[in-house]
Design a protein that fits this description.
The protein is built from 3 helices and 24 strands. It has 304 residues and is mainly β. Strands 10, 11, 18, 21, 23 and 24 form a 6-stranded antiparallel sheet that branches. Strands 14-17-22-19-20 form a 5-stranded antiparallel sheet. It has a 4-stranded mixed sheet with strand order 1-7-6-3. The longest helix is centred in the C-terminal third of the chain and has 10 residues.
Length: 304
């Protein structure tokens, strides 16, 4: 039998593995590593140039085989343990991944890319194996927008009841009238919604708060925090496959309003003055579903 150990390398910190030298029978020393023995302790130091993921093999004094998998921090974030094709494996994928039976399902923008270990029974060697989707896919959908009503006048401040522990009242959220009086835009996707695809709208805007309407129905909203607003447009496709009419309403911001904003968001508002409501950019990304089929003693194959 063997024992598997999984670890990741912290960025900016030299990775070192320390062992009681008397307990080791054999230890791999791959490229860009250095081993030293001092006071009965064996230290294996990994240089920054060492390629990751890295598989280290060692045997202890009792003859037990150990395999140590070293990942980068980004790889560790993208790693999951899955039971697929008859055994437990590590799957690495920078995109969203889950397993259905013996299929790895990837939701990716562009080309799907999956690594797996162990893969010695999948037509590969003893290290990590990699399969990249052979065909590339369109990863954006064109979008036009136009201003239907422009307003840069922030609504009058409305305070709620006094908050005892604050010792003062705090501003209320914008009311319906504030959204109707603010900046209004029409968003128009320029292509149909592809099947089996997640269509993600990313909005970068200046304002206090915003709402998105589909055929006049409120479907999403956000208080501006300086970060892009992500919305899954595929959820709102009509039954006939057509896009609804998307209306975006933005409430102009009042920089003097006593509410919490991250420093970066407050600087953005100050830099945009006297403009207090604007759509800076809008991008529609396409996230495609791809299936990688695993079968014991065969090379995995893409089904999509």
């Amino acid at each position: 039998g063997s024992v598997n150990w999984i670890a990741f390398v912290v960025p900016g910190v030299r990775a070192e593995l320390c062992f009681d030298a008397a307990t080791l029978r054999a230890l791999d020393s791959p490229a860009h590593t250095r081993s030293e023995v001092h006071d009965g302790r064996l230290t294996l130091s990994c240089e920054p140039a060492m390629a990751l993921p890295q598989l280290l093999r060692l045997s202890d004094a009792q003859g037990t085989e150990h395999r140590i998998v070293l990942l980068s921090q980004a790889q560790a974030d993208a790693c999951s343990r899955q039971h697929i094709a008859g055994r437990d494996r590590l799957l690495l994928c920078a995109d969203a991944l889950h397993v259905e039976g013996d299929n790895a399902i990837v939701l990716s923008r562009g080309t799907a890319d999956v690594q797996a270990w162990p893969a010695d029974d999948l037509g590969a060697g003893p290290d990590f194996a990699r399969w990249v989707q052979p065909q590339s896919r369109v990863d954006t959908l064109p979008l036009h927008w136009r201003v239907m009503h422009d307003s840069q006048q922030a609504p009058l401040r409305r305070d709620g009841p006094p908050i005892a522990w604050r010792g003062r009242a705090v501003p209320l959220a914008p009311d319906e009238a504030a959204y109707e009086a603010g900046l209004q835009l029409l968003l128009e996707p320029q292509a149909d919604c592809p099947p089996d695809t997640r269509v993600m709208l990313s909005l970068d805007y200046i304002g206090d708060a915003a709402r998105l309407y589909a055929d006049g129905v409120l479907v999403d909203d956000q208080f501006a925090d300086g970060e892009p607003w992500l919305i899954g447009l595929h959820r709102f496709v009509r039954a006939d496959g057509d896009w609804p009419t998307f209306d975006l309403h933005i409430v102009p911001a009042d920089l003097d309003l006593p509410i919490f904003l991250e420093d970066s968001a407050r600087r953005r508002l100050a830099a945009a003055a006297p403009q207090s409501a604007a759509l800076l950019s809008a991008e529609v990304g396409l996230w495609h579903r791809a299936r990688l089929h695993f079968r014991h003693n065969e090379t995995p194959a893409w089904l999509d």
